[in-house]
Amino acid sequence: MTVTSRTRAPRSDGLRNRQHILDIARGHFAEHGISGSLDAIAKEAGVGPGTLYRHFHSKEALLAALLTARDDEIGARRDAITRSTSDAGDALAQWLDALIEWASAFDGLPEPLRAALGEIPSPLTSTCEGYVVETDRFLARAQDEGLARADVRGRDLFLMALAISWTRGAAMADGASTSLMPHILRAGWATATAR
Fold first, then answer.
1. Which of 81, 83, 193, 66 is nearest to 135 (CA)?
2. For the chain, what percent of residues have pLDDT higher than 70?
3. Entry pTM
């Protein structure tokens, strides 16, 4: 007799609950930043905390799910940059702009993304590492063409994009600082011929 293991498909009401929680969390984080509690999101969603924690065991898991939902958007931008820009330096700069916007989705988001690249893995780690790999691809092309410094790493540029995203939410930041920072970042990674 052969024993087979079966994995049950998620129940439709469970899928609806999960999507409803994601929709409420997206609005909650957009309004309050990521400092809001999961219990407050559960209450707003009209579900018990146990239901929320069954779907998302931590705030990082919830954020990872919300960011995964935005993968198509940033992937489309990546593809458009790759298709439309023959200058590898400009392509890298545009990719970094896309990352800055992606990390600015919710006030306070850059901090858990930065922490996800640390020694303790989180549900956000694979998301961040994937974007570091993408950044490395854009950077390698710019380096191959002599447009980016050889000592710069994709991880460093990803962290700088997070820093700029964080700064956008700072009380002292204004329109001039948010528009100037990507240019300052480019001055740091670009070779003299690419500036």
1. 81
2. 89
3. 0.80
Q: Tell me how far CA of residue 161 lies from CA of 4, 7, 98, 133, 181, in angstroms.
A: 48, 40, 9, 14, 10
For residue 87, what is the DSSP state?
A: -
Q: What is the CATH number of the domain that holds 101?
A: 1.10.357.10
Q: How far is it, in rounded angstroms, from Cα 124 to Cα 179?
A: 27
Residue among 94, 74, 188 at smallest CA distance from 141: 94
Q: 41-48 — which CB contacts under 8 Å span 24+ positions? A: 45/20, 45/21, 47/17, 47/20, 47/21
Pick the closest to residue 41 from 58, 25, 57 (CA basis). 25
Encode 84-117: b = buried (16+ Cβ within 10 Å), e = exposed: ebeebbbbbbbbbbbbbebbbbbbebbebbbebb
Same domain, residue pair 101 and 28 = no
- The pLDDT of residue 68 is 86
* CATH at 45: 1.10.10.60
* Cα–Cα distance, 73 to 69 (Å, whole number): 8
